[in-house]
Design goal:
Blueprint: E1 22-23, E2 28-29, E3 39-44, E4 50-55, E5 61-65, E6 70-75, E7 103-105, E8 134-135, E9 152-159, E10 172-180, E11 186-194, E12 200-206, E13 209-211, E14 218-221, E15 227-230, E16 236-239, E17 251-255, E18 261-266, E19 271-278, E20 282-287, H1 289-294, E21 307-321, E22 326-337
Antiparallel strand pairs: 1-2, 3-4, 4-5, 5-6, 7-12, 8-9, 9-10, 10-11, 11-22, 12-21, 13-21, 14-18, 15-16, 15-17, 17-20, 18-19, 19-22, 20-21
The structure holds 6-O-phosphono-beta-D-glucopyranose.
Protein name: glucose-6-phosphate 1-epimerase
Family: Belongs to the glucose-6-phosphate 1-epimerase family.
EC number: 5.1.3.15
Length: 340
């Protein structure tokens, strides 16, 4: 029994508080004043869809496609890819891309009280991940913490169109800001605005496919003793009894009312992903394992071993907005080296 895994994650150099940059080279909070600005490039992918690449002054990078507003790649300053993408992923509309960070929002079935992850449907994760977004030319001003020297950022927006009313009978605007910091931290801030004349409800998840060495070497920390809804058992509610979560078979759970920091440690790679979130009370943990992944056409053989989805989410209770209201959900992802 390892005590450190039985407690909620506390602020520390490994898990610094939200917005505090830890300089892992100098082992102290980062002084950002000394860095030049980050930069961005806009180009087209092989299917003619625009994409944006953010570069940090220390050479970390993130690539965001306007197809789904989806982060497709996030690399360290050494060029190591941190996100999983299936070798069988399909990159053409209308299919969602298997990997990266799909934005799962505006669940078609939400208004009918069937919640996120609980129903087999093409659109169970919402349709915005299958739509072409645009660059937001007039984004809201950056928050003080977002404008730190050395950050690179991009603002995207998806505004619902008449055709979307076939899937979801409300008008909305969904904005996404992606920020890559000097040290390669990736922050995603989403805002959903109700531009309809009636209230609406929706669920949300940053469906984050982390790349891992081997799923059997991975543990998720920070969800111990919490309640979860088991998607494999009709969303029945259980209380986690164990220490950190480890993986020996298919897992598809929604941990509810979690703390705002969760860690995903990869023993073999000696690294820990740190997920910090705001406005997103739940965490979805998903690995399809062998049998389920064989049934998914855009999943390669044995690829389940090298991915784990840990999503900052709002799914147990949908978010309800009146006309004119705006909701914000934010996640910050970073990776630290561990010594074990
Ligand atoms: O194939 P999709 O729509 O991307 O979903 C993948 C998985 O995503 C997880 O978040 C859900 O909990 C699972 O139930 C689901 O199977």
């Amino acid at each position: 029994m390892c005590e450190v895994h039985c407690v909620r994650l506390r602020p520390s150099p490994q898990y610094p508080p939200f917005g505090v940059r830890w300089d892992h080279h100098l082992r102290r909070p980062m002084d950002q004043a000394s860095y030049p600005p980050g930069r961005l490039e806009v180009s087209e992918d092989e299917n003619g869809v625009s994409q944006v690449v953010l570069h940090s002054p220390r050479r970390a990078s993130a690539r965001i496609s306007l197809y789904g507003g989806q982060v497709r790649s996030w690399k360290t300053e050494r060029g190591e890819e941190l996100l999983f993408t299936s070798c069988k992923a399909i990159f053409k509309p209308p299919v969602a891309v298997r990997g990266g960070i799909p934005i799962c929002c505006i669940n078609v079935l939400c208004d009918f009280l069937i919640k996120f992850g609980n129903h087999v449907s093409v659109e169970q994760h919402g349709f915005v991940r299958n739509r072409i977004w645009v660059i937001d030319e007039n984004p809201a001003p950056l928050q003080p913490t977002d404008s730190s020297t050395g950050n690179a950022s991009i603002d995207l927006v998806y505004k619902s169109i008449d055709d979307d009313l076939r899937f979801w009978p409300h008008c909305f605007e969904l904005r996404l800001r992606v920020i890559l910091s000097v040290d390669g931290f990736l922050t995603l801030i989403s805002r959903v605005r109700n531009v309809d004349c009636k209230p609406f409800s929706f669920s949300f998840a940053y469906h984050t496919y982390f790349s891992v060495s081997d799923i059997s070497e991975v543990r998720v920390e920070g969800l111990e003793t919490l309640d979860y809804l088991d998607n494999l058992l009709h969303r029945e509610r259980f209380t986690d009894q164990g220490e950190a979560i480890t993986f020996e078979s298919e897992v598809d759970r929604v941990y509810v009312s979690t703390s705002d920091t969760v860690g995903v440690s990869d023993h073999e790679k000696k690294r820990t992903f740190v997920i910090k979130k705001k406005g997103l009370p739940d965490v979805v943990v998903w690995n399809p394992w062998d049998k389920k992944s064989k049934a998914i056409t855009d999943f390669g053989k044995d690829e389940y071993k090298h991915m784990l989805c840990v999503d900052a989410a709002a799914t147990e209770n949908s978010i309800t907005q009146k006309p004119g209201e705006e909701w914000t959900g934010r996640v910050e992802l970073s990776v630290t080296k561990t010594r074990n």
